[in-house]
Specification:
Number of domains of chain A: 2
Distance between the termini of chain B: 60 Å
Number of domains of chain B: 2
Oligomer: heterodimer
CATH architecture of the largest domain in chain A: Beta Barrel
Strand content of chain A: 15-25%
Radius of gyration of chain B: 19 Å
Structural class of chain B: alpha+beta
Shape of chain A: extended
Largest interface: A-B, 16 and 20 residues
Number of strands of chain A: 9
Radius of gyration of chain A: 27 Å
Strand order of the largest sheet of chain A: 1-2-6-9-8-7-5
Structural class of chain A: alpha+beta
Number of helices of chain A: 7
Shape of chain B: globular
Largest sheet of chain B: 6 strands, mixed
Number of helices of chain B: 5
CATH class of the largest domain in chain B: Alpha Beta
Order of helices and strands of chain A: HHEEEEHEEHEEEHHH
Chain lengths: ~300, ~290
């Protein structure tokens, strides 16, 4: 149970909503041409409110979700009657369903041996819910390695827009990010605030503790340094292929294909399963075969 | 891992196509087979009716390979074989004959990296159809030294009214072949090649023509010993077991006058070569004469 992805826990509630929404969504998909740069719609409900505090200055803000995992989502149904199936917590001893109030948390100290906590005990040591994003310094945004980035949220002005606008403009013109920490729900994160497309956005980060140092890989211990000529050649190739990064060059082709299938199914079309095209390596081989067969025939 | 190619282009069932056979260049078995498919129109005439000796490297050329004369068990029924007595192993061997594209593809799928051919055909094994001059430089002699010897050799044979053909060995040497009428024995071709070598030795101190001198540093040996029944030569257009995936490549004599590097003739560019310098080699079988 603990290992199930979050999504499945809210399975039941969502299922009902989705069920009603699905036909409309299908229609929308039929009529709407794909826009140039398709983006996730913005959220309308803030998930946190407080203020960015730099010394004695406070900028009141609300926090909105801004990253959405929009890959194709399927629900599990019972094959015989197409009804959604759900997960239940059962006791591993007698397979009886365990109601929520009877569930406590246990920390496994050794195989099948647990230290048990009730809610009050853990709540007592939780970080205080803090309504501040406490900034302690300003850093160059691009000097922070993305390996630490966790998720990004939009910060919108709350009450006063002036202070917000000032901080945003200042960060934007200097290319700086405010570094500090934020407590979301019950967890404190290192965080960066920077300007993105005319808004302040907050990026929660991982602790160094959670990120391993790849130079500890044994395979990297005795890397040979390249010859100068090789390096020059590599640098030339990189220079020649350099360009601006453009996220719209990347498409989730799986999602697009499944959406196409959904459209067809909604129209009542039957889907024929195409055999996958041969892999790149076999393609070359087959083209060569066809050409050679042609040549041999001529002889 | 079996992959079937649709449309019945070939009877061969491919296996392990993504296996790396040449690790330095990351050449996969698919690319390797593709090479033999592309080169087949030029290569097949040299394989026809010759009992083959293969050098197989199923795990890649950096791993252990093995000589294979006997056709493997469980091979497809359509592969032609011929049972012959082998002088070298002193017993009967079931040799593979490669007379068509499918067999060549099948050999490639066995990771037969090098394909070696005898100098005679199966219907008259004791009558060679090539006299073979193996021009073999001993370091510090280089392929350039081999080239100047081969050019001398060509000049000499032209004087005698012969037309001969040259290819890279794919390693450091050169192979010169004279197509001959099938009237002579291997003793006669061996003596002929030896005699020419002796004549040349008098004209250039780079050249040695006697077997005991083979390993003299800086010399080029015109090897005649290969002219005997049961001996083989790497086939024209066969790949070699070199890190650069070189090919034993037929050349035009004019190409030898420039500096040649064996690595420039490899799996990638040989199939694209427009020239076919050996195209007429079988149209011109010659009689041997020694003055």
């Amino acid at each position: 149970m603990e290992k199930l992805p979050k999504k499945s826990r809210r399975n039941k509630k969502q299922e009902v909503v989705e069920e009603q929404k699905a036909p409309n969504q299908g229609k929308a998909m039929q009529t709407e041409e794909p826009q140039k740069e398709e983006r996730a719609p913005v959220s309308h409900r803030s998930m946190w409110s407080g203020s960015i505090s730099v010394g004695l200055i406070n900028v009141p803000v609300k926090l909105y979700a801004m990253i959405f995992d929009r890959g194709i989502n399927f629900h599990f149904l019972h094959k015989t009657d197409n009804q959604p199936v759900k997960y239940q917590k059962v006791c591993t001893r007698d397979n009886q369903v365990v109601p929520w109030p009877e569930v406590v948390k246990g920390y496994e100290v050794s195989k099948n041996e647990f230290v048990v906590f009730d809610k009050a005990e853990l709540d007592a040591v939780k970080p205080e819910s803090d309504k501040r994003i406490r900034i302690n310094k300003f850093v160059d945004y691009f000097s922070v390695d993305p390996v630490y980035f966790y998720s990004t949220y939009a910060l919108l002005p709350d009450k006063s827009k002036e202070a917000y606008s000032l901080l945003m403009k200042a960060l934007e013109t200097m290319g700086k990010a405010a570094a500090g920490r934020i407590t979301l729900r019950t967890k404190e994160y290192p965080a960066l605030v920077h300007a993105y497309k005319g808004a302040l956005v907050l990026t929660t980060m991982r602790y160094g503790y959670d990120v391993s140092d790849p130079s500890d890989f044994e395979q990297l211990q005795k890397l040979k340094s390249p010859e100068k000529s090789e390096l020059d050649l590599a640098k030339k190739i990189i220079t020649d292929l350099s360009g601006e990064f453009d996220i719209s060059e990347y498409k989730d082709t799986y999602r697009e294909k499944v959406e196409e299938l959904i459209r067809k199914k909604l129209k009542g079309e039957t889907i024929t399963v195409e055999k996958p095209a041969p892999k790149e390596e076999v393609k070359g081989l087959m083209a060569a075969l066809q050409e050679t067969l042609k040549q041999l025939e001529k002889k | 891992m079996k992959q079937k190619v649709p449309e019945q282009l070939t009877k061969v069932q491919f296996s392990n196509l993504d296996k790396i056979l040449y690790p330095k260049l990351k050449i996969t078995k698919a690319q390797f087979i593709e090479y033999y498919v592309k080169i087949a129109p030029k290569m097949l005439p040299f394989l026809k009716d010759r009992p083959l000796v293969l050098i197989r490297y199923p795990e890649g050329v950096d791993k252990e390979g093995f000589y294979a004369k006997n056709a493997p068990e469980g091979m497809p029924k359509w592969v032609k074989t011929v049972k012959l007595y082998s002088e070298t192993v002193k017993r009967h061997v079931n040799y593979i004959l490669c007379n068509d594209l499918d067999t060549l593809i099948w050999l490639a799928n066995l990771a037969a990296v090098e394909i070696h051919i005898p100098l005679s055909r199966v219907d008259a094994r004791e009558k060679p159809d090539f006299a073979f001059f193996d021009v073999d430089p001993e370091p510090p002699a280089t392929i350039q030294d081999a080239a100047s010897v081969a050019l001398l050799l060509n000049e000499k044979l032209e004087e005698l009214g012969h037309k001969v053909y040259v290819k890279t060995s794919g390693k450091k040497g050169l192979h010169v072949l004279m197509p001959i009428v099938r009237e002579y024995s291997f003793d006669q071709t061996r003596n002929f090649v030896h005699a020419i070598g002796k004549i040349l030795m008098k004209e250039s101190n780079l050249i040695v023509s006697e077997f005991p001198d083979t390993k003299k540093p800086g010399k080029v040996f015109v090897d005649y010993v290969q002219n005997s029944q049961g001996r083989t030569m790497v086939s024209p257009y066969s790949l070699r077991v070199t890190p650069e995936a070189t090919v034993s490549t037929p050349l035009d004599w004019s190409e030898l006058k420039k500096e040649i590097k064996p690595a420039e003739f490899n799996i990638f560019n040989v199939p694209g070569l427009e020239k076919d310098p050996w195209k007429e080699i079988f149209l011109n079988p010659q009689k041997m004469e020694v003055k």
